[in-house]
């Protein structure tokens, strides 16, 4: 057994010790496959299903005991951009509709997270995707500039997974970063990322229907003052928070409210502090809501297992999508997904006097295949919120429906590349676009 040993004895450690030396080890290969998808959130689901339905031997590795990522572990509703991108997106929506777990809400749609978990697993089983839960990707396996697979850690220990093509759907770009891909983090100027939000669900909402975020903010602020509740809302008056998002089960809602600021989502200490603070905010928010007319009977059902991370690494690729592209509603010869969601920047530093850019002018636009190709690395694709784009562009394409769309494009590209023994960077972007259109993706 390999063990990490300290020399000298731990009781005699010199002050200021900053590193240890681990034992050299042989890492067993657990599995090989055509396409390895790391991360089972919306992007990973799209990638694995697309690869398997194209004929590839697809393996998906996921850190939680479920698929869906922010949909399920994060309780994130609504399902934005659910009707624009066809193929796998449509399959998921159809399953939820058939299960009675799908409903319109304002300009979007909501779903039942438990049904989402089950239906995603059914889709994977039918497509022949191999699943591996409860595994954390801890390193990338690279030969020269070619990504060969990843190293995972689990209850079984440290093991390797090898593949012809790897698709990084970790959200944070973990595989790409560990392989040496360049990336950006946060906005230009101060490097801050958007705040994290811990979603939670309530019941007892009755017939309450929210008109706007501002109206609910005002009602909550009035309740705090009139009833001397002694709490403070973690945001100012804005159009993006707070929202009570009605769910398919009568009288229930997902709540988009908690905000924690100036934290690094890649630091476990910051993630811990943010989660604890946000869970406190959720409990306090329910106490406030009970004093809002029409919501006197609300009850906290559950908080999410995973805090919602809006932004971390943005991997630099062959093309970086920008706010100029969004403002122009730009189309691309290698466009593989479309998006019409607004530039939704939750203020990273309230009170700092720095304009966030929230609500910047944009038009429906396309995402080019080149945004999925990390610079200087072969046999690796990225999908989801970690694709190549600026801070402002990212605030639009980070929503879950668009993440599935980039995932399905990456999965198809990975399957075609594996079958043709080509690195994804040599796959024709326009040809990939044509194949997606043939599969029902709504591109002009």
Q: Can you give a write-up of this model?
A:
51% of the residues are buried. The mean pLDDT is 96. It is globular, with a radius of gyration of 22 Å. Helix 1 runs parallel beside helix 3 and helix 1 packs parallel to helix 9. It has ten helices and 17 strands. A hairpin with a 2-residue loop joins strand 6 and strand 7. The strands form five sheets. Strands 1, 2, 5, 6, 7, 8 and 17 form a seven-stranded mixed sheet that branches. It has two domains: 288 residues, FAD/NAD(P)-binding domain; 104 residues. The protein has 444 residues and is α/β, with parallel strands linked by helices.
User: What composes the largest sheet?
Assistant: 7 strands, mixed
Structural class: alpha/beta
Molecular shape: globular
Under CATH at level 1, the class of the largest domain stands as Alpha Beta
